[in-house]
Amino acid sequence: MADTTGTEFDIVVLGGGSGGYATALRAAQLGLTVAIVESGKLGGTCLHNGCIPTKALLHAAELADNAREGEKLGVHTELKGIDMSGVNAYKDGVISRLYKGLQGLVKSRQITFVEGHGRLVGTDTIEVGGQRLKGKNIVLATGSYARSLPGLEIGGRVLTSDQALTLDFVPKSVVVLGGGVIGVEFASVWKSFGADVTIVEGLPHLVPAEDEALSKALERTFRKRGIGFTLGDRFSGVSQDDNGVHVTLESGKTFDAELLLVAVGRGPRTADLGYEEQGITLDRGFVIVDEKLHTGVGNIYAAGDIVPGLQLAHRGFAQGIFVAEQIAGLNPAPIIESGIPRVTYSHPEVASVGLTEAKAKEIHGEDAVETLEYNLGGNGKSQILATQGFIKLVRQKDGPVIGVHMIGDRVGELIGEGQLIVNWEAYPEDVAALVHAHPTQNEALGEAHLALAGKPLHAHN
């Protein structure tokens, strides 16, 4: 561990995940001295047991589906099986390369990395492994953990995404508790790998934070894929034995499976870190901040999953950059939460940015909102990829587009343009005037805006 006795840093960051390392890299770029304190590995949840490993599994799952369905395209492929040790070696290789790159980046910027469990012991001091690091500014970025429900013990055949990512076999059957992003992605992977999957979601829809049209479309596709789900029925209890798990719902329904995956969201990692003792306001474990991500105590800021809102790596990353620029006196513009894109990388993918139809009507009024759905059935590239889905646009009447919502394979790659449209407050006519390459799925965005501008070239809906 680096000896930092007597050194005062411009910034000491507690947590080396997306929010923490982005703060450090941007601050170092701006000429500030920085230390990062991290108890695990640099890169945090996203790199080691979140976004990156799950997307690697989803890519392997896509290849499995392609092999299974090659005959439909006249290609003689067959799926001989899934070798989880091979899948895990591929996944771990991806993580390892990104991890080495990140470590090199932090080193090259002269950022002091201190490994160990840090704790806030003063408004300008983090204590780690018996030494004290002083910072003119402190940034709290301690991230999140896979939550469970009260009384639901994790262990044995009951796992969270952390354990699910290291499984060395494909389960025969799984009950997934939670139909949000994480639950839906794992359900999609396991189904592609050949497991029997049932999702249990207490709310009325899968991916309940998305526009209802996307939720219903995902449910239809999952039904076709043979992924079972039960909605609007809450979990009551689980028992496990040598044969598997026995899950009971409040309605009395029961499910038997080999494993239960608990995917009920992520909680903020803020317990026993000295936050409250230093006067920081917590609400259900989340750190309360102002629009400049300042905690209201000394020069202490917070970024990432511990700040209430979307728990997304790219949000944490953006907040880290924001905090570094704020400390450096650049006075950056506050981040608009609704302008952050959201992607669920299941098969099919779900991607959105801006307001859902329901939220837009709540904010602007029932009659002040217009929507349009453009079916991917009219899009050449989507036909080639044999994917179905649609793009739904939400706009203010006679005003800009305020929501872009999509479902279909690979739509996560289209959300970049959707994000520009919403954040730059484009009118349908503005986008309709842009020439989109043919044949691409991207072209469907152009066509949807042509239709919304009143000049549809192909029939929609």
What does this entry look like structurally?
With 461 residues, the protein is α/β, with parallel strands linked by helices. The protein has 3 domains: 8-146 and 268-337, 3-Layer(bba) Sandwich (FAD/NAD(P)-binding domain); 158-264, FAD/NAD(P)-binding domain, CATH 3.50.50; 348-452, Enolase-like, domain 1, CATH 3.30.390.30. 31% of the residues lie in helices and 25% in strands. The protein has 13 helices and 24 strands. It has helices spanning 18-29, 44-49, 51-69, 84-108, 161-164, 181-192, 212-225, 313-327, 357-364, 380-384, 415-423, 428-432, 442-452; strands at residues 8-14, 34-38, 112-115, 118-122, 125-128, 131-140, 144-146, 158-159, 173-177, 196-201, 228-231, 235-241, 244-249, 254-257, 259-262, 266-268, 282-283, 286-287, 300-302, 342-344, 349-354, 369-375, 390-396, 401-408. The strands form 6 sheets. Strands 1, 2, 3, 4, 5, 6 and 19 form a 7-stranded mixed β-sheet that branches. The protein has a 5-stranded parallel β-sheet with strand order 8-15-9-10-11. A 5-stranded antiparallel β-sheet has the order 20-21-24-23-22, sandwiched between helices. Strand 23 (390-396) and strand 24 form a beta hairpin. Helix 1 packs parallel to helix 8 (313-327), helix 3 packs antiparallel against helix 4 (84-108) and helix 3 (51-69) runs parallel beside helix 6. The radius of gyration is 23 Å and the shape is globular. The relative contact order is 0.12. The mean pLDDT is 96.
